[in-house]
Design a protein that fits this description.
The protein is an all-beta fold and 496 residues long. The chain is 2% helix and 51% strand. The radius of gyration is 23 Å and the shape is globular. The chain binds beta-D-fructofuranose.
């Protein structure tokens, strides 16, 4: 390649990055320096900083020629933008630097492992794609691609695997064995999506170990962005089943974010699946990636958008794509629990508390409003008939609102942003079964200018959604239908 795409991207960032004012961005959610962002990549702790990279096209608010953007933080709250880290420069990554992860190499350098995507002309003149796994080493700012890339090729996969859909390596180091492992998403002609495991003694020489699980054509033709970790005796494999049929209300049609729960046998390298669940029940959640903090917490971030909503760009946008607020992962009864990292408590200002408020008709509570808010509502039945529906509306004015409604008889939560002000015809509703607790439910909302993340019952379920409602619509209201609900409210403004 003749043009230095990394230098070009860095120059473009310097020129256009600063033209986006802080008020045009969310306050405590990550956005690209300029242009387009999708998956979080290389989420790691290196040399005293959290590093977070992302799939990045600086030049427009649509997906194209992937680079890696780069941010660092000391506390997972305040992020500093660094120059773009990777751009296509070789034959093996001429089509893009796709997703991957990071680790500290034994010699102290920061190692990035990513999918190089090559576009080449096949014998009949048509264009074809080949995906391989590649390394880059750096000092936390500048990275150099390994001279013998790629280190993992699709020829190393079992027969019947695709060479075009083989991506998103997630690396870790197994101390006891002094060995590196990575899981990679793959697609087979007979079984659909699979998660494959590779190992290496030295980061350079890799071998195929096993196929941990496969879709068997029940959950999509390809599994993107796998991860693997154990929490409290259960192993979890988050992954993205592509193009699947809807299953009840657990999975919608199209591309989903799911996780497998089960047991990974560390000696035999097999995985016994016990269940498959949605990782998030909102509209905008895809491509999660996790890491372990120095104090031992497993933290996950994800792209707060999906392939299905990637064209829902607001008019005149200078950036498009946000990451979820970092979530701490724990485990309960073999299921993943997700809660906002506790660091958020240091950003809470202007607290407002209410206790035992009876709700029937639509009610607004003094002091409970805003678009940069951490709000928890604990709902329970009042005396008499159990309410039939309880609704919280946020980002509300006379015309626009986004709502979350709980129906205790069905124990279903409905999220609806149909009236949030999108000018596109896009997916606007999603519902989720939640655990029935006799009409009690706790809903925590993280609202940040352009998004609403909901944490249900202390993180048993989450719903991540973008909203591009005008910022003056900052009302929050509560309503119970068919009976009385009693609520406690805890509300903070978030101030970075
Ligand atoms: C998931 C994904 C990854 C791929 C990247 C490309 O959103 O499709 O599988 O590496 O995005 O941008």
């Amino acid at each position: 390649m003749n043009i230095d795409l990394l230098a070009k991207a860095r120059a473009y960032e310097t020129e256009y990055g600063d033209r986006i004012t802080e008020t045009e961005r969310p306050v405590y959610h990550v956005t690209p320096t300029v242009g387009w962002l999708n998956d979080p990549n290389g989420f790691s702790f290196y040399d005293g900083y959290y590093h977070l990279f992302y799939q990045y096209n600086p030049y427009s608010t649509t997906w194209d020629t992937m680079h890696w953007g780069h941010l660092v933080s000391e506390d997972l709250l305040h992020w500093k933008r660094l120059p773009a880290a990777l751009a296509p420069s070789k034959q093996y990554d001429n089509f893009g630097i796709f997703s991957g992860s990071a680790i500290t190499a034994p010699d102290g350098r920061h190692l990035l492992i990513y999918t190089g995507v090559e576009e080449f002309e096949a014998g009949d003149g048509s264009k074809e794609i080949r995906q391989t796994q590649c390394l880059a080493f750096g000092d936390g700012v500048d990275y150099e691609k390994y001279e013998n890339n790629p280190v993992i090729t699709p020829e190393m996969l079992p027969d019947g695997s695709s060479t075009a859909d083989f991506r998103d390596p997630k690396i870790w180091y197994e101390e006891k064995e002094n060995c590196y492992y990575c899981v990679i998403g793959s697609s087979t002609f007979n079984d659909g999506g699979t998660v494959v495991l590779f190992s290496s003694p030295d980061l350079y020489n890799w071998k195929y170990v096993s196929t941990l699980d496969k879709s068997s054509n029940d959950y999509g033709f390809m599994w993107e962005c796998p991860d693997l970790f154990r929490i409290g005796g259960t192993d979890f494999i988050p992954l993205l089943p592509m193009k699947m049929f809807a299953r009840g209300i657990e999975f919608h049609s199209g591309n989903n974010a799911a996780y497998l729960a089960g047991i990974y046998d560390r000696e035999k390298h097999t995985f016994m699946r016990r269940g498959i669940f949605s990782l998030d029940y909102g509209i905008d959640f895809y491509a999660p990636q996790s890491m372990v903090t120095p104090d031992g917490r497993r933290i996950m971030v994800a792209w707060m958008q999906t392939p299905e909503t990637k064209h829902a760009t607001p008019q005149n946008a200078k950036w498009f794509g946000q990451l979820t607020f970092p979530r701490e992962l724990t485990q309960k009864e073999g299921r993943l629990i997700q809660n906002p990292i506790r660091e958020i408590e240091t950003l809470r200002k202007e607290e407002v508390f209410y206790e035992d408020v009876c709700i029937q008709d639509r009610t607004r509570l003094p002091g409970v409003s805003g678009r940069i808010v951490d709000l928890t509502v604990h709902v329970r039945p009042g005396g008499g008939a159990l309410y039939r529906k309880f609704t919280v509306k946020v980002a509300e004015d006379e015309e626009l609102f986004t709502s979350l409604t709980y129906d205790p008889a069905e124990s279903i939560l409905y999220f609806d942003r149909s009236y949030s002000g999108f000018m596109h015809y896009i997916l606007s509703e999603r519902k989720a079964h939640v655990r029935y607790r006799g009409g009690e439910i706790t809903l925590r909302f993280l609202i940040d200018r352009f998004s609403v993340e909901v944490f249900v019952n202390d993180g048993e379920q989450t719903m991540s959604n973008t909203i591009y409602t005008r910022q003056s619509a900052d009302g929050i209201s509560f309503e119970a239908v068919g009976g009385t609900a009693v609520i406690d409210v805890e509300k903070y403004t978030i101030d970075l």
